[in-house]
Design brief:
By secondary structure, this protein is of the alpha+beta class. The protein has four helices and nine strands, in the order βαββαβαββαβββ. It has two domains: 131 residues, CBS-domain, CATH 3.10.580; 31 residues, no CATH class. Strands 3-2-1-6-5-4 form a six-stranded mixed sheet. Strands 8-7-9 form a three-stranded antiparallel sheet. The structure holds zinc ion. Zinc ion binds next to loops.
C-alpha cells in the first residue's frame, strides 16, 4: 500500500478544467465525489474522453466519466489514515477493508482542495503520481493529448494545426 495527496475537483468541472487542475498540481490524477461515490480519475481517462467528445456544445464534465478502479470510504470505522504511523495490525485492517470493497483506493483524509488517498498497490500510486507531458493545439486548447503520441513538429491530429507542449 502507499499514500498520495490528489487535487480535489467538483463533478461539474469540465474536462479541460480537470486537465488544468492536474497541471497545476503536477499530478496524474484527481479526486472527485461522483453521484456513484468517491472516485479517482486519472489523466488518461480525461484525455480519452476529450478525444471521443464529438459534440463540443454538450461539454462533458467529470460527472460523465467512469473511474478505472473503485474507491472506498474508510469512514466511519477508520477516520484518518497515516500509513507511516500505523501499526501492522492497523495496516492489515486497512488492507482488508479495501479488499472487502474490491477497492484499489481508499479515502484517507479529506480536505477542501486536496484529498489524501491510500492506494492498495504501490504500482498504482506510481502510475498516477505524475502527469504525463502533454501536447496542446495552438488553435484549440481542447485538442490535448499525451506528448508521446506525437513526434516534434507534427500537426494536431484533430485539425492539422501546429501543436505546442505544455
Ligand atoms: Zn487542434
Amino acid at each position: 500500500m502507499d499514500q498520495i495527496t490528489l487535487p480535489r475537483a467538483a463533478a461539474s468541472s469540465t474536462l479541460l478544467e480537470a486537465i488544468a487542475l492536474m497541471q497545476k498540481a503536477r499530478c496524474g490524477a484527481l479526486f472527485v465525489d461522483l453521484p456513484s461515490g468517491p472516485a479517482v480519475i486519472d489523466a488518461d481517462i480525461v484525455l480519452h474522453a476529450l478525444e471521443r467528445e464529438v459534440a463540443p456544445e454538450a461539454e462533458l464534465t467529470l460527472g460523465d466519466l467512469k473511474p478505472r478502479y473503485a474507491t472506498a470510504n474508510f469512514l466511519p470505522t477508520i477516520k484518518t489514515v497515516s500509513l507511516s504511523s500505523s501499526s501492522v495490525k492497523r495496516l492489515n485492517e486497512i488492507q482488508s477493508h479495501l479488499d472487502e470493497k474490491s477497492a484499489v483506493f481508499g479515502v484517507a483524509k479529506r480536505g477542501a482542495k486536496t484529498v489524501t488517498i491510500v492506494t492498495r498497490y504501490e504500482t498504482i500510486r506510481d502510475a498516477i503520481a505524475f502527469l504525463p507531458k502533454l501536447w496542446v493545439c495552438e488553435g484549440d486548447p481542447s485538442h490535448v493529448l499525451r506528448a508521446e503520441r506525437l513526434q516534434p513538429g507534427n500537426l494536431c491530429p484533430y485539425d492539422g494545426q501546429p501543436t505546442k507542449s505544455d
